[in-house]
Amino acid sequence: MKNKLFICLAVIIISIIAAYLVFLLIFNKTNYITDHDYLYDVATKYLKDNNNSKDLDKDDFNLFFSYDGFGITKDEKYTYAYMWILEESYYVDNGKLYMSEGSSIPYKFTFENDKVIKYDIPKDGDYYAQSIKELFPNEISKKVLNYDASNLNEELKNKVNEHYSYLDSTDVNY
C-alpha cells in the first residue's frame, strides 16, 4: 500500500514539474517582431537629438553611431528595441580633429507609437551583470554579457573619416 501511494505521489509531482516546464517553454518565450528594424535608427536619432555634450559649440561638432541590434519585442502597449551602441563625438580645432566623448554600452529603448519615451542602460561595476539580466530578455542578456563590440569600431571610424575628409589628416588628437 505504501509503495502504491509513493508511486502515485511521484507520478503527480513529476507531472506537475513537466507541465510547468512545458508552460515555461510555450508561454515564457520572448516574441520578436521583424518588421520594425527602422526603430534602431529612430533610437540613435533620439540620442543624437538629445545630446548635451560639453563640446556642442565647437567647430564642426558631430556625433557618430555604430550599433548592433539584438532584437525588437512588443507587448500590449510598448515596443522595445535592444541594442549595443558605440557612440563617439568629435570636433575640429585649428584644422585638427579632436575626440570629445564616447561610450560603448547596451541599451533598452522603450517606444510608444514609434517614438522613444525612455531608454535604460545597465548599472556599473558589481551590479552590471544583474542589471543586464533585469533589462533584457534572457536570450539577449546572454548575448550582451558575451558581446565583443570591436566590430563596431571600424564602421564608426569610416563614418568619422568620411565626414572629416576635408581635413589634412583625420588622425585624432586627444
Secondary structure elements and pairings:
Blueprint: H1 2-27, H2 38-49, E1 59-74, E2 79-93, E3 96-112, E4 115-120, H3 128-135, H4 138-145, H5 150-163, E5 172-173
Parallel strand pairs: 3-5
Antiparallel strand pairs: 1-2, 2-3, 3-4
Helix pairs in contact: 3-4
What does this structure look like?
The structure is a single chain. The chain is α+β, with helices and mostly antiparallel strands. It folds into 2 domains: 1-30; 31-173, no CATH class. 39% of the residues lie in helices and 32% in strands. The chain has 5 helices and 5 strands. A hairpin with a 2-residue loop joins strand 2 and strand 3 (96-112). It is elongated. The N and C termini lie far apart (82 Å).
Structural class: alpha+beta
- The number of distinct structural domains comes to 2
Summed over residues and divided by their number, the pLDDT gives a mean of 89
Strand/helix succession: HHEEEEHHHE
Largest sheet: 5 strands, mixed
- The helix content is 25-40%
Rg calc: 23 Å
Whole-Å distance between the termini? 82 Å
Shape: elongated
User: Which spans of ≥5 residues are poorly predicted at pLDDT below 50?
Assistant: none
According to DSSP, the number of beta strands is 5
Assembly level? single chain
Number of helices, where a helix is a run of at least 4 consecutive DSSP H or I residues:
5
